[in-house]
Design brief:
By secondary structure, the protein is mostly helical. Helix content is 73%, strand content 0%. The chain contains 12 helices and no strands. Helix 5 packs antiparallel against helix 10. The longest helix has 38 residues. It is elongated and about 75 Å long.
């Protein structure tokens, strides 16, 4: 690409409505930077800490209950202090954020993978197919997602051994949250499909006898997926909260696996004995992460809202 082409690309990028909206929203810029930093530090945890939490071989009980570095008795080796078993809180937060982000992203991908196809099929087919799919979605929407996740986790716990459950706990948690959250994506996709199926280009595709699966994939899907992906951004924050809640209740990830919910639950036992840092820093991380993702989702929703165009 020539220098003139690069300059034109740069100018077009900066003049784009989305870029303009992003650069003129300080809250969104800060939220994006915070989310990016947390994502990089979580998945690059070994680069930022030499400690490996929840590894019994690396723990030293003599390091238990060390306060943060700025308090009396604190040390620079453990900036945020340690818990009752000598785990470094900062390292535990990094690895816990990694687990929470993984569960949140994968569960939303599963919800989208279920909801979008069902929504497109319901909206395009109509009739009894639409009725059956939407009534199932309506029934599921009356049940809080956390209760559905608790039910699936409970069935799994009674069906397999405890050791096997600890191995598959995270996949089960992802499946529980994903299955509990698909109806909202199906409803949004169905609404867009109802609009698109009556347009001329769909009639033209039918006229030349284009197979229905190709119509759904080539024509319907690209035109209805945008609003769904915007909602999915906020869905990631919701999934992280659900994971943290389940882990706090002791039915999420195993106690030997760090997650923000597990760390908060562990620290809650020491909250009133003076070791406030054990639960405070994981809880603060959860609040900042969820708030940042929500702010990005709100910006996407406002930017791509057709009524604002």
């Amino acid at each position: 690409m020539t220098k003139a082409g690069l300059i034109k690309f740069r100018n077009d990028f900066l003049d784009h409505d989305i870029t303009y909206s992003f650069l003129h929203s300080p809250a969104t810029i800060i939220a994006a930077l915070v989310t990016l930093v947390m994502f990089v530090m979580a998945f690059g945890a070994p680069l930022f800490t030499s400690y490996t939490p929840f590894d019994p071989g690396s723990l030293n009980l003599m390091d238990a209950f060390i306060p943060p570095a700025w308090e009396d008795g604190g040390t620079a080796l453990h900036v945020m202090g340690t818990d009752g078993q000598g785990r470094d809180i900062f390292a535990a937060i990094l690895y816990g954020t990694q687990v929470s982000l993984t569960v949140g992203l994968l569960s939303v991908l599963l919800s989208i993978g279920i909801g979008i196809p069902l929504g497109i099929i319901a909206g395009y087919s109509g009739g009894w197919v639409d009725t059956v799919i939407m009534r199932i979605a309506d029934i599921q929407l009356t049940i809080p997602p956390i209760l559905i996740a608790l039910m699936i986790d409970g069935i799994t716990r009674t069906s397999i051994s405890r050791d096997l459950h600890e191995v598959v706990a995270i996949p089960v948690l992802v499946a529980s949250i994903g299955i509990a959250s698909w109806p909202q994506y199906a409803r949004i996709t169905r609404s867009g499909t109802l609009v698109e199926r009556n347009k001329d280009y769909i009639a033209a595709a039918k006229l030349i006898r284009t197979p229905v699966p190709l119509i759904l994939l080539r024509h319907i899907l690209p035109n209805v997926i945008g609003p769904t992906l915007i909602v999915a951004t906020i869905g990631v924050a919701v999934a992280i909260i659900i994971e943290a809640t389940l882990s706090f209740l002791g039915v999420g990830v195993p106690p030997t696996t760090p997650s923000l919910g597990t760390l908060i639950r562990i620290g809650n036992s020491f909250l009133f004995s003076g070791e406030w840092w054990i639960t405070f820093f994981p809880a603060l991380t959860l609040v900042i992460l969820v708030l940042s993702v929500n702010l990005i989702g709100d910006w996407l929703r406002d930017t791509f809202n057709p009524k604002l165009r």
